Amino acid sequence: MCIIFTIIVLVIIITVPIVTAKTKKTNSEKTSITEEMEVTTEPTTTTSTTTSTTISTTSSTTISTTSSTTISTTSSTTISTTSSTTISTTTTINPCTTGNYVWNTSGITILDSSQVTHVVDIYIDSNNTLYITDEIASTVVWRLLKNATSATAIAGIKDSKGSSNTQLDHPQGVYVDTNGTMYVSDHYNHRVQKYINGSNSGITIAGLSESRGSSLNQLNGPRYITLDPTQAYIYIVDSYNHRIMRYSTNSTSGNNGTVVAGGNTIISLNQPWGLWYQPSVSSDFFITNYLGHSVIRWTPGASSSTFIAGVPGTTGSNSTLLNNPMGIKLDKYLNMFVVDQNNHRVQMFCANSRTGITIAGTGVSGGTPTTLNGPRGIAFDSNMNMYITDFGNKRVQKFLKL
After folding, report:
1. How many CB atoms within 10 Å of residue 9?
2. Which residues form the signal peptide (predicted)?
3. What pTM was estimated for this model as a whole?
4. pLDDT, mean of residues 228-247
5. Which of the pair, 165 or 32, is modelled with greater confidence?
6. What is the pLDDT of residue 14?
């Protein structure tokens, strides 16, 4: 609101000349004029209102012999509120279904027969360190650091198989937990060994050393192994008992385990070999059925399973058949990678598909960069480069992700 007061006072004295604006007055004269102004004031008021986005006050006063006073006030208030909510959803596309899952078909040999013999399983930790079981004649577990060219034996005694706590006899599966504790299935000793803090002396946590059997405290030819995400339990492929066993990772020799798959007849599991289990992706077990030439999906607690790759009991080399599958891995999309041992190749099955795509090997045995000879194990590093234990060629092959 703006209020303007204008006061105009005219004082005329006949006997005295009119004083111009330049005439100087004393303080007493100014007081007299002021008193006269108070008598003859005729007020005039003007009001205006302006609204804008600012608040300002302007005041000015002018006094002369003809006195004029102007007071101007501008007041405005603006309230502005902006509210915005954005919801963003990102949908990931399975690269297998778009044809973007491709690896170089020519492998790079990272370990050869000058260092290793018949390599079996392979595990890669979060630092891209490789752990490789060497069945015979080495009978050890190798460790190959990232970008290294020479491996070190960290469990077992090279070329000396046995059943002591420092020896192994045809080691098969290997797994390393986040604490660096390593677990190894010792096939012909019918046990699983645990190595703590880099020790080369194993502790038997499952099975009875050199005592095969089918009781809950025994194993018979254990193959590949895995741990659950809590690292509280280890799952063991008890091959000749046609079952999957679960033990506490803190068990000791002779403790009873729990049957979590198979164990009834060989109709469901027939000498299983490989195992994948990751509850954050799927609550089911995925098992390679070596003599069943198939892959089985088994829900824990169920009495039977579902065949998801291959035809049970039928060997073959086309895209829907397998021949003695061994190693197995799945990704977060449930795309499945199967080492098809007797077809000398690696097959990729996109999620929910029973048609395999050959991503390594040619289906014919060979020792060239593009061929394999009885491969057994498979693993992926953090960049999805693929590593295969090429058993018959006594080497480890790396296939770069394209």
Report:
1. 17
2. 1-21
3. 0.78
4. 96
5. 165
6. 33
Local structure of residue 19 (DSSP, 8 states): P
Question: CA–CA separation, 185 vs 236, rounded Å?
Answer: 8
CB 295 within 8 A of CB 326: no
Measured between alpha carbons, how far is 229 from 246 in angstroms, rounded to an integer? 14
Q: 3-state SS of 141-176?
A: EEEECCCCCCCEEEECECCECCCCCCCCCCEEEEEE
Alpha-carbon distance of 32 to 19, in angstroms, equals: 14
Q: Hey, what are 134's tokens?
A: 């060497």
Supply the mean pLDDT for the chain: 84
Residue 263 exposed, middle or buried by CB count within 10 Å (0-12, 13-18, 19+): middle
> Could you report the per-residue pLDDT of 37-87, keeping only the tens digit for each?
333 334 444 444 433 433 333 444 443 434 444 444 444 444 455 555 555
Contacts with 83 (C-beta within 8 Å, 6 or more apart), sequence order: none
CATH topology of domain 98-399: Neuraminidase (2.120.10)
Q: For residues 375 and 345, give the distance between their C-alpha atoms in angstroms, rounded to a whole number.
A: 7
Run of H or E residues at 70: strand 68-74
pLDDT at 324 over 60: yes
The residues, ordered by sequence, that sit 6+ positions from 358 with a Cβ below 8 Å of its Cβ are: 319, 345, 346, 347, 348
Question: 167 with 139: CB under 8 angstroms?
Answer: yes
For residue 324, count other CB atoms closer than 10 A to its CB.
Answer: 20
Q: What is the pLDDT, as a whole number, of residue 80?
A: 52
**Structural domain boundaries in the chain:** 2-15+27-74, 98-399
Average pLDDT over residues 125-153: 97
Secondary structure of residue 262 in the 3-state scheme: strand
What token pair was written down for 108?
């790079």
Q: Write down the residue that tokens 């403790």 correspond to.
A: 255
